[in-house]
Amino acid sequence: MKTVRDIAGYLIGLLLFVIMIPLLMWRLSGNVHPGAAVIICFAVLAAAGIGLSVWSIIYMKNVGKGNPMDAFNHEVAPRTVNLMTDGPYRICRNPMLLGVFIYYIGLLICLQSWKAAVVFVAFFAVMMLQVNREEKRLKEDFGEAYIDYCKKTKKLIPYIW
Predict the structure, then answer these.
(1) What is the pLDDT of residue 106?
(2) Do the domain assignments include residue 160?
(3) How far apart, in whole angstroms, are the C-alpha atoms of residue 143 and residue 104?
(4) Domain count, the chain
(5) Is 103 left (phi over 0), alpha (psi -120 to 50) or beta?
């Protein structure tokens, strides 16, 4: 049963974050014809962002012994049992989300659409609510160790925020 929940969590994340939201951004943007340089920029940012997210997921599974899919305090897949402070979690406390944002910023550059930007801003706002709720739970789960980690590691943007 645990394997089914793991797979479900990964599939939901793939469908929502990698396919559905970018598809919505693209559909709302209308008839877009970016040049080669813009497409290359998108490809580089998409690869970097998705790569960071995948690294974070693998690290979470191997070190944290859990899964990333925990939506607004509803456990979709098994939660992590170990606090992760190394690997991609040394970069920021939410490297998986940072990777998604890098991917979406590449998409925004490619689409050059205010409608896609509105989707991004709405997604960003919802995800920040999720992150704040998740951080409260992590403080409960890991106590002082998590509080110390928060003091040393930025929430989302390395060295800034």
Answers:
(1) 95
(2) no
(3) 33
(4) 1
(5) alpha
Cα–Cα distance for residue pair 8/161, rounded to 1 Å = 31
Considering only 54-68, 79-93, 146-160, which range has the smallest mean pLDDT?
A: 54-68
Predicted local distance difference test score (pLDDT) of residue 75: 60
Q: Tell me whether residue 61 is in a domain.
A: yes
Report the C-alpha gap between 115 and 60 in whole angstroms.
Answer: 33
Residue 96: its pLDDT value, please?
93
User: Which pLDDT value is given to residue 7?
Assistant: 73
pLDDT at residue 22, as a whole number: 93
Parent domain of 119: 2-152
Write 134-138 long-range contacts (CB < 8 A, 24+).
Answer: 134/70, 135/93, 137/70, 137/73, 138/83
Tell me if 157 is assigned to some domain. Answer: no
What whole-number distance in Å separates Cα of residue 52 and Cα of residue 36? 24
CA 86 to chain centre: 17
| Residue 98: both structure tokens together | 């940072």
Indicate whether 43 belongs to any domain.
yes
